[in-house]
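Figure 3 (text version): structure tokens given as input.
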């Protein structure tokens, strides 16, 4: 079993470069199925979720080739299947993004249902409602979902209002709509940076998507998409994770290759916690003395405070002065990491979507187990700020979404390494 070993209590100094956005790659890579040509994608993060997505594309018949560690060339002109292999699809919640692209490409698609995970079930009813509105029929059997356009019919545009803001359904329906007959309007759409990045990719290949990044996205169907090149945006959550690490450990870190407006909610919370954050055109500088003030946060769809930063800030609040509260408004149960942080002496109570955190200095090292990607990042952050040795198991969950996290942190002066037994 592999684990991270961290000897904490050291301040962090220097520069770290952020990789491409995991959650942009999650929809843009499946989106290459729509393209009648060769696509070159750059700034692709070298993480497990991307490697798995490329394996699924190859299982469908695509040719994928790394030009460089972060540049991949994809050719989907010859496909041999429209079904995501179950043994691959179940390994990643985001495999459902293949449904929209494959439906648009082949008129039929299949994928395992996203399994439950650490913070509750992952329903896709809004995705399926949208596909049906566009003329597809949906069936769910043995934990697999299959959608198809009836014989002789074509996927057509529709006016779809989501019952709640959903990043996945917004992106999945964008993918389904780009080659459909007519116009599709998505209302109450998600506005995350990676939604706008997907629209940027599709339009670079000849699609006609407007309004992405607002709550109403309009997609006018086109006949075909052509090949080309595209570069992913930097990862907002990876950047926020290093901002939180610098705030927790103290020191001064320059976080490069970011888009500061994507980080404004995270910056605002850190400033409330007595952390200095200055912004450049494509970097933020985070400086702290490790003494943090407690605060209250509530997660919300973008541009609100991102749920994917909730565990990382929760770790900071465990170290801060005073009692803080967290309202996790997006997921039903995203506080399991607090139970793990109690092994370090942290004090908190969580109930449903609310948690109270009684911050205190002087936590101690502990052995912990990552329960999901961002929970694992929270445990790393708390360990970096704490004198003594900590161990974190289940690191494959962390490496799903963070490229070379031990190398990047070591480059800032952290004492962290991976023990592979
Ligand atoms: C995406 O998940 C991200 N994953 C998640 O990041 C992130 O937490 C989430 O968006 C919210 O920002 C990827 O992009 C690969 P949603 P997604 O659809 O699309 C409910 C990470 O750590 N809902 O916006 O699955 C759902 O239960 C991961 O990088 C329905 O009820 O999230 C949740 O309560 C974790 N029905 C809320 O909406 C649906 O059909 C938001 O879900 C869809 C969603």
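Below: residues designed for each position.
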């Amino acid at each position: 079993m592999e684990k991270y070993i961290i000897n904490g209590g050291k301040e962090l100094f220097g520069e770290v470069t952020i990789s491409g956005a995991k959650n942009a790659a999650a929809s843009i890579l499946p989106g290459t199925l729509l393209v009648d040509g060769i696509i070159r994608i750059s700034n692709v993060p070298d993480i497990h979720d991307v490697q798995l997505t490329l394996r699924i594309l190859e299982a469908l018949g695509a040719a994928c080739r790394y030009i460089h560690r972060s540049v991949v060339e994809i050719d989907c002109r010859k496909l041999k299947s429209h079904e995501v292999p179950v043994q691959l699809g179940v390994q990643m919640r985001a495999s459902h993004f293949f449904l929209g692209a494959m439906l648009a490409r082949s008129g039929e698609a299949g994928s395992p249902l996203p399994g439950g995970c650490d913070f509750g079930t992952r329903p896709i009813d809004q995705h399926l409602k949208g596909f049906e509105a566009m003329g597809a029929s949906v069936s769910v059997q043995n934990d697999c979902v299959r959608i198809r356009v009836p014989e002789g019919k074509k996927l057509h545009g529709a006016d779809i209002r989501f019952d709640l803001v959903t990043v996945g359904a917004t992106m999945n329906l964008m993918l389904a709509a780009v080659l459909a007959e007519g116009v599709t309007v998505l209302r109450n759409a998600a506005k995350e940076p990676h939604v706008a990045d997907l629209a940027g990719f599709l339009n670079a290949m000849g699609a006609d998507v407007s309004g992405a990044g607002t709550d109403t996205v309009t997609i006018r169907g086109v006949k075909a998409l052509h090949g080309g090149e595209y570069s992913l945006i930097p990862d907002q959550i990876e950047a926020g994770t290093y901002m939180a690490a610098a705030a927790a450990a103290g020191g001064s870190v320059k976080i490069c290759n970011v888009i500061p407006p994507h980080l404004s909610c995270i910056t605002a919370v850190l400033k409330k916690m007595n952390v200095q954050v200055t912004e450049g055109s494509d970097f933020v500088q985070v400086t702290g003395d490790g003494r943090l003030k407690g605060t209250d946060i509530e997660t919300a769809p973008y541009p609100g405070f991102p749920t994917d930063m909730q565990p990382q800030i929760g770790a900071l609040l465990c170290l801060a002065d005073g009692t803080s509260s967290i309202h996790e408004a997006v997921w039903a149960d995203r506080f399991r990491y607090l139970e793990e942080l109690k092994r370090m002496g942290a004090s908190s109570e969580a109930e449903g979507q609310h948690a109270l955190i009684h911050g205190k200095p002087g936590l101690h090292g502990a052995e912990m187990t990552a329960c999901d990607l961002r929970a694992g990042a929270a445990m790393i952050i708390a360990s970096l700020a704490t004198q003594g040795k900590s161990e974190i198991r289940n690191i494959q969950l962390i490496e799903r979404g963070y490229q070379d996290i031990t190398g990047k942190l070591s480059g800032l002066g952290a004492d962290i390494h991976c023990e592979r037994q």
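Residues 236-249 form the longest helix (14 residues).
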